[in-house]
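Please produce the structure of this protein holding flavin-adenine dinucleotide.
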Amino acid sequence: MNDTFDAIVVGGDVNGLTAAAYLARAGRKTLLVEPRNELGGDCENIAFSDGFVMPVLHEVHALDPQVVRDLKLARFGFRLAARDLPAVVISGAQQPLVVSRDAFLTSRNLGGTSRVDSEAWGIFRYKALGLARALRAMWWSAEQRVDVDFDQILRLPLITWLESKFESDALKTALAFEILESGCSPAEIGSTLQLHWRLAQEAGGLQAACAFPAGGPAKFAEALVHAARAAGVTVRTGVRVDRIITLGCRVAGVVLANGEEIFARMVHCSASRAETFASLLPTAIEGIAHSADSTVSWPAPGIARLAFGLDALPEFASTNDGKARYFIIDRLASLVSAHSAAQFDQMPDELPLELVFPSIFDRSFAPIGQHLMSVTVYAVPRTTDGSSAGMRESLVAKVLAAIARRVPEITRHVKASHVLMPGDLSARYGMDATMPAAIRLCTTWADRIMTPVDGLYMCGRTAEPSRAISGRAGRIAAEMALQRGLV
Ligand SMILES: Cc1cc2nc3c(=O)[nH]c(=O)nc-3n(C[C@H](O)[C@H](O)[C@H](O)COP(=O)(O)OP(=O)(O)OC[C@H]3O[C@@H](n4cnc5c(N)ncnc54)[C@H](O)[C@@H]3O)c2cc1C
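Below is the modeled complex.
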């Protein structure tokens, strides 16, 4: 293919697909290049053991509603099978605590453990959501500056902030769980701001918009693929971009791994900023050294994903009819120590687990009469690569033992399992270390998207203010490029 395009998008993940669809809709001749044979990045389903299906990601909590609307994703099959999933904390000896969007119900549930918290919940919810919505302007739109004082929540670690508000350990744990996916510890500076980012997405039990798409997050990616193709994007899979071509400080195209050169005046790159600056660009460009410095990363713990095929639902899934996210940990302090242990490459004594039952929302995830239990383990050493079967088996056993301490019958119901260790996830999807939350959440979209190379825009996960499937970085990167009007 010796062709010229207006724009090339490097990466066929959610953000790459979104950027490509917006550019093509605006009339730009757009090529998208993805090294894997599949599109959608980590939004994929993996079939295992006769009829069970594991969604690699098990919920959506930060989708950009504008992407869904603008790209008319409903026309391409996207819909939510469940939304407003409450958080259920299964901790220690207490009854499970349900924190849901319904402020009255949550307040009543809290009454069982703390009258003070029960009374405080309504006002806390009102204030925290109010601040989160004001801050949302800076996380949802490239133009907006926020005019609110968030100094205190930036400085205070989440555990300190929560201690000042509530008595109930289960409630504090529910809120702290919400930030774990970002790789941030509740004891870290920036963690309170991280919770507000989560609340700004209408999640966190306060507004509980965590959702499960019909067919899983993979269907979101599939709808984006259809939208991109319908807009006229040319897609090439199975080939990697080896190098970004520059002329002086301007982007000129890409070189593929097979040596093919393709020219374009605009390149959107969904690979991480670190990979782009270290491996795809020539180092001689002025400003690159400075930009590479800004990729400083933080040793976040590894995350593992497990799926269990069950012949029946465990008893705790009857809380809220299984339509919930179940958080399993003894107390907030265990969550903090698990994070520090994993960060320094030790397997924690107690694993923070989030459980979802996709087969309750969508029957296609398990054979008739059976169920799928999807588990995210939030703190394991990043180096856990599963290179030996023994390491996988020992993680499966540790996870099941943690669940069985609360629900002994679980082990009887497990018929099959599938494990993705941190090493599997980074080998398949290139998940890398993240920037400290306090820095990442305070940078602007322009800081994260623009580069010292004219015409080169970052549009992937490192352009987002926090880890999530969203599509927002793809949309905003395309909008910024189109506004600059170089092509
Ligand atoms: C274990 C784990 C679980 C998570 N679970 C959830 C969840 O349940 N819900 C949620 O909302 N979020 C979740 N997240 C966050 C979410 O997965 C990611 O933040 C999101 O997928 C980022 O996607 P992205 O579209 O920005 O791109 P990335 O996934 O970073 O995609 C980069 C793309 O660029 C391509 N690429 C890289 N190099 C090249 C090259 N040289 N040439 C061409 N292409 C290249 C890659 O193949 C890939 O397609 C989770 C994260 C982790 C780590």
